Automatic annotation (TrEMBL), chain A:
The chain crosses the membrane at residues 38-56, 100-119, 140-163, 169-193, 200-222, 251-269, 309-330, 356-380, 401-423, 443-463, 470-493, 513-537. Keywords: Membrane, Transmembrane, Transmembrane helix. This is ABC transporter permease. It comes from Cellulomonas humilata.
Automatic annotation (TrEMBL), chain B:
It comes from Cellulomonas humilata. GO terms for molecular function: ATP binding; ATP hydrolysis activity. Keywords: Antibiotic resistance, ATP-binding, Nucleotide-binding, Transport. InterPro entries: AAA+_ATPase, ABC_transporter-like_ATP-bd, ABC_transporter-like_CS, ABC_transporter_ATP-binding, DrrA1/2-like_C, P-loop_NTPase. Pfam families: ABC_tran, DrrA1-3_C. CDD domains: ABC_DR_subfamily_A. SUPFAM superfamilies: P-loop containing nucleoside triphosphate hydrolases. Residues 6-233 form the ABC transporter domain. The lineage of its organism: Bacteria, Bacillati, Actinomycetota, Actinomycetes, Micrococcales. GO terms for cellular component: plasma membrane. This is ABC transporter ATP-binding protein. Signal peptide: none annotated.
Amino acid sequence: MTAVALAPATPTVARGGGRLTRTGALLRLALRRDRVRIPVTVIILVLMVASTLAAIQSAYPTVVERQQLAATVGSNTAFLALLGPALHPESVGAMATWRIGAFLALVVGIIGALATVRHTRREEEAGRLELVGSLRVGRLAPLTAGLLAALVMVGVASFGVALPLVGQGALGALAFAFQNLVSGLAGVGIAAVTVQLASVARTASSIAVSVLVGTYALRAAADVQDSLSWLSWLSPMGWGQKIDPYGDDRLGLVLLGVAVLALGAGVGYRIQATRDLGAGLIADRPGPADAPGLRSVQALAWRLQGQTLVTWAVPVAAYLLLVGFLLSSVGDIAGDSPQVQQIIEQLGGAGAMQDVFVVTIMGFIALAAGAFVVASLSRLHSEETAGRAELILGRSVPRTTYLLVNVLVVAAGTVVLLVVGGLAMGVGNGIAAGDWGYTGKVLGAALVQLPAVLVVVGFMTALYGWVPRLVVLGWALVVWSLVVGQLGALLDLPSWLQDLSPFSHTPAYPLDAVAPGPLVVLVAIGVALVVVGVVGFRRRDVVA
Amino acid sequence: MTSAAIEVAGLHKSFGTTHALDGLDLVVPAGQVAGFLGPNGSGKSTTIRVLLGLLRADAGTARLLGGDPWADAVALHSRLAYVPGDVTLWPTLTGGEAIDLLVRLSGRSADKGRKEQLLQRFELDPSKRARTYSKGNRQKVALVAALATPGVELLVLDEPTSGLDPLMEAVFQRCVREARAEGVSVLLSSHILAEVEELCDTVTIIRQGKTVQSGTLAELRHLTRAKVSTVVAGDTSALAALDGVHDLAVVDGHVVFHTDNDALPQVTRALADLAPSSLTITPPSLEELFLREYGDELAALESDGVTSR
Ligand SMILES: Nc1ncnc2c1ncn2[C@@H]1O[C@H](COP(=O)(O)OP(=O)(O)O)[C@@H](O)[C@H]1O
Ligand SMILES: [Mg+2]
């Protein structure tokens, strides 16, 4: 890729001459467009925190139990990498924030980055910025309004998630808000730069998210290896841990996030002030003038879907490789505590602990695959509203072919995702343990997730086939499955409500044996829903 | 030829409470270029989407190349090519890739020479990513894809020139004439009367989902009265008395009137005698045409709006 030399920033309008004119109006417009997204996102996150708190309160009500948790799980290498150290078992608040803190901080960081991209580069890419830019609007007003809108999202999310914890102590709750805020501010700051580098919103998002996930990994390395503990200072999630809610409550560290934001925004403004509309620092290269390989709807679907698949498969594989490396240490969880060893023996020994861990992780990966399906098949709806479906169906392409090919490519993508994930975890475990006996089981644990994911494929196809506007309901299914998986037993939800999640029917392999019955039923439901979707799509209007 | 490429009768289509088509009739004779004229929102694109089997009509009949647009869509689409009014392409594909793909999806393969030639004529760089194309360039991609598809019997073009500059519009008109010479039927929708006049053998004019006029261009000559504005010194009563001169008005020596095109020879002769110091003759816009032909109706609609308030 060619980098274009960056000219020094020259003010194009006289000082104070309205480079920010109309920022307020643009910000109101941006927030109006997010008026559903912000509350829905925050409610989901708040539910996750509330459920974590409830889980700690009910499963570890006494200090002794929490000390045991900290001494076993909390100091186990695998969990150190995933969650960080559990430093204050005496406090319920501290244990709840330990359980969810690092992960949630990463999520808030990603939310901040995606919101930044959505309100800046995506607007520019869609040509709406061109329209806005032609009005009496300051040159830097759209970027400023975009950053502010992202900051509002981050702020609401950070303080929102702290609400369930207020009962555990207001100062600790504030520190928890800051733990998320520091990462959210950094996410906005990082994306403020990436939106200037890439001329494509999707690329700007993936770079920013990769950077954030990378800093999460730095934090993991720092927590596992004492000699690397300094790495934690390079990670917004590391800063979040050092804020230490319900421990030292070092609120001042939030300034590190402010610094990243200031730096990122500064660089962003500098580039924005001098570059052309629609351009990025990473220049667009010309492509091929012919497409000898692009012969069919299949070829197009792979071409469009392939990139998405890679951006999902790489982090899943990287994460599971790491988890695989740590897998064999899960068996050491008991440490020196004889009581815990006894409990574990009752559960079926160290091997069973490992199995439980695999089942839990694969359950999450299955939900990730479900999210991949929803994101990918939602694209069919936007392809239609953008008028590209019309372009294809205006040629001699049967509707059944168009829909089935796209659905099958996404289904094949989930197989790739699960196989790659299972192999990565199996290989990580094989290398770390020096024994490849468990690898096949790990791969099997990944593959038994497939039937439930196929139900999501069917659900999305049926929605798209009949009422394309409602494809967003796919997200409801995934979130519902997450909630049921996390809270179902805890909240004593009626079993039929739990059964609505396809994922609750997946066998807990390798902990339990695989009974083929439920899997066959899931596959049958998935296929039936696909057929229903195709029937609907053949009958309805295709609307541009 | 007796058969028509497109025959539509009494077509109805509603979107919720919007009646987009309200008994529309349209005939495209085989081998001819048919103009499909109507103001924005009058139902042109909706009609075309019904003809492509993308929308299902509520009532009425539609035949396309002798087949049923809904039931026989796939077979029919290999015999036609369509250019949408608002072209969006796949942002990461280049223009050239999109053209090849679209041609192949009709079950044909693009003749490389033909594609090259069209790209040159439309001055389109096929190696650019679609996201960097302007509206006009995206439209050119769709036009090249349509014109490069071999074996096409019908071109369906929905406001194909709305993003093109005058030079490219001329290239487009040449391409349409060539296609017609090869026996291709063309449906060309537009809201610009002059464009339709330039290219079309027959014209169908619609308004609010209904056909209000149709016929050959010659039959609709009365619609294409030109507007003449001039400044003259002399007495204009001789002019006003001429056959084919309408609505003559004089304000401070500025003379404005409408004239039938076949009266132009007499009108110009009479004008010359008046020694005009300035003269412009403009073809009527569709809006003017509607005002003149349906002004009463419009006025009625508007006063309805006022009284009901
Ligand atoms: N998918 C749709 N949903 C609702 N209304 C529509 C839809 N498509 C078209 N319309 C309405 O139908 C009418 C005709 O639209 P259209 O056929 O696009 O007109 P034209 O192409 O002549 O400008 C307009 O009032 C438009 O708003
Ligand atoms: Mg239209």
